[in-house]
Amino acid sequence: MKTSISPCVTVLTALALVFNVTLSYSQKLIAHYNSAKKENFRIGTDKNDVLPYIQSGYTLMLPDDSYVKGVLIFLEDSGFDKRNDSAKKIYKKALKKDFAVLSVSTDIPFDFYFSETSILTAHQLIENVFLKHNLPNKNIFFLGASLTGHRAMRYIKHIKETEDDFQLNIKGIVVCNFTMDWTRKWHQNRRDLKISKVDFWEPKFINYMLETYLQGTPITNPEAYHSFSPYSYFDEENRNIEVYKAYAIRAYIEPAIKYRLKKHHRTLYENNATDIVGFLSELQLAGNDNTDLIVMQPKDNPAENKNAQSTWDAIDKKELIHWINDQSD
After folding, report:
1. Is 143 exposed, middle or buried (0-12, 13-18, 19+ CB in 10 A)?
2. Which residues, in sequence order, are bridge partners of residue 291?
3. Are strands 291-295 and 248-253 parallel, antiparallel or unpaired?
């Protein structure tokens, strides 16, 4: 006998399947965000160069069972990127190895962590999550591309230097194709504006923020840029290397040299890979023998646009979690 199924039943069945799949990975997803302030944040000199504040808060994904081996932390924006987008891409693989995944956002859009207030906001959110949800303070890894990665470096530096009562037992950092040397980046932005081969918004925005919060340029106030950069080729002291030398470091770079040369007329000096390779070299000279460099080739990333986020999207998450697991106690 042939049995017919109504379209309505088919749709309901499909929704039920989706719902069940979602529950299997989200039944222990916990999110808490504050309402955004009803005002704007200045990002440039023109009257329209403002952005609304975003929501501060966190999303926590916990393994299905009660055992948590460690915690992977992303310091992501809640607003202008897709919320927790980078963290979501690693949920499934992390949960299989009993790692919780925590994504934390301040209320400042595209937050560079210039201000101590931003870092303390992130720190308090992290501390509250660890205490409220009884997370183990062990096998802690910070991960991130673009500003998410930069924030991790700023957070770690500040907390180590202030010696706050609550200190995370950080095991490692996953560095993914982001700017470390803000002196180099400032010069890159100046060149981009001069040769007019990119959208002006980003270089104008970044240099405005750097010059405003670091009180000058790398020429007029080089010390501020050296202090703000996890690593700088131009800093003869390499003052911040000591901060990170005790951690396991996995670094992903995607130089995409031909792509950037053709599309933006950028050289090797205008490339985040330059910073990251220099950072690893200085770590090794300082005695860190637990560094690992993964160079992404064109065949590894089919994305049409090459940027820090597309590098993160393309990396082998299963292999990354395997590396994190191997570093853990």
Report:
1. buried
2. 249
3. parallel
Q: What is the pLDDT of residue 16?
A: 35
DSSP SS3 for 309: helix
DSSP string computed for 181-204? -HHHHHHHHHHHHHHT-S-SHHHH
The pair of three-digit structure tokens given for residue 108, joined into one six-digit string: 């400042």
The answer to whether residue 189 sits within a structural domain is no
pLDDT at position 290 is 98
Specify if 141 maps to a domain.
Answer: yes
Q: Supply the pLDDT for residue 312.
A: 97
202 lies in a domain? no
Low-confidence ranges of the chain (pLDDT < 50): 1-26
**Phi/psi at 102 (nearest 5 deg)?**
-120, 130
Other beta carbons less than 10 A from residue 241's beta carbon: 18
The encoded tokens of residue 131 equal 């205490």
Model pTM? 0.91
Nearest Cα residue to 56 out of 7, 92, 109: 109
* CB-side neighbour CA atoms (13 Å) of 256: 27
Total domains in the fold of the chain: 1
Whether 221 contacts 215, CB under 8 Å: yes
Task: Give the CATH number, domain containing residue 296.
Answer: 3.40.50.1820
173, β-bridge pairs: 142, 249
Neighbours of 81 (CB within 10 A): 18
What is the domain range of residue 322?
27-178+241-327
Buried b (16+ CB within 10 A) or exposed e, 58-72: bbbbbbeeeebbbbb
Cβ–Cβ under 8 Å, residues 301 and 311: yes
Query: Within a domain: residue 292?
Result: yes
**96, amino acid identity:** K
C-alpha separations of 243 from 7, 88, 195, 239 in Å: 60, 28, 37, 8
